[in-house]
Amino acid sequence: MNNKANTKGPATLLIVACFMLILLISGIPSTRRLSKTSCKPVTGQVMEVTQSSPGYVIHLKDDPRIYYIKPASVPSATMASLEQQLHGRSVQLFTTAAWSPLDPFSSMKEIRRLQIGDNVIFSAY
């Protein structure tokens, strides 16, 4: 009986370690090349532009997701200039279709391209 208990511990530890490894690997962003075809377009009206920990945060009307641009991606942009350009306007955002175990419902999306009509405001590719 004691021998069975000794084999269950290492087996359970191995299963948990494999599960953790799978979660870690799935959270690593892919290294594939960014392009307009590899990004998912989202269209909506900008309700609010704020600045917080992920960067410049854009909230769209009737969309619960949080879209953000890293400040390092747009060094020339300021909070005031983005607010002036985007507030109340209909925009098209291109986000990567990446899943992370830290954000399983994909409620936060990094913007890779931002445009108003044919005018590109920001593009990472």
Could you characterize the architecture of this molecule?
Helix content is 27%, strand content 36%. The protein has 125 residues and is an alpha+beta fold. It has a domain at 39-123: OB fold (Dihydrolipoamide Acetyltransferase, E2P), CATH 2.40.50. It has a five-stranded mixed β-barrel with strand order 1-2-3-5-4. A hairpin with a 5-residue loop joins β2 (55-60) and β3 (66-69). It starts with a helix and ends with a strand. The mean pLDDT is 83.
List the helices and strands and how they pair.
Elements: H1 2-27, E1 39-52, E2 55-60, E3 66-69, H2 79-86, E4 90-96, E5 108-116, E6 119-123
Question: How would you describe the shape?
Answer: elongated
Spatial order of the strands forming the largest sheet: 1-2-3-5-4
Number of β-strand runs: 6
User: Could you name the CATH class of the domain at 39-123?
Assistant: Mainly Beta
Give me the number of helical elements.
2
Q: What is the second-level CATH architecture of the domain at 39-123?
A: Beta Barrel
Low-confidence stretches: none
Q: In summary, what is this structure?
A:
27% of the residues lie in helices and 36% in strands. The protein is an alpha+beta fold.
Features:
36% strand; 125 residues; five-stranded mixed beta barrel; 6 strands; alpha+beta; OB fold (Dihydrolipoamide Acetyltransferase, E2P)
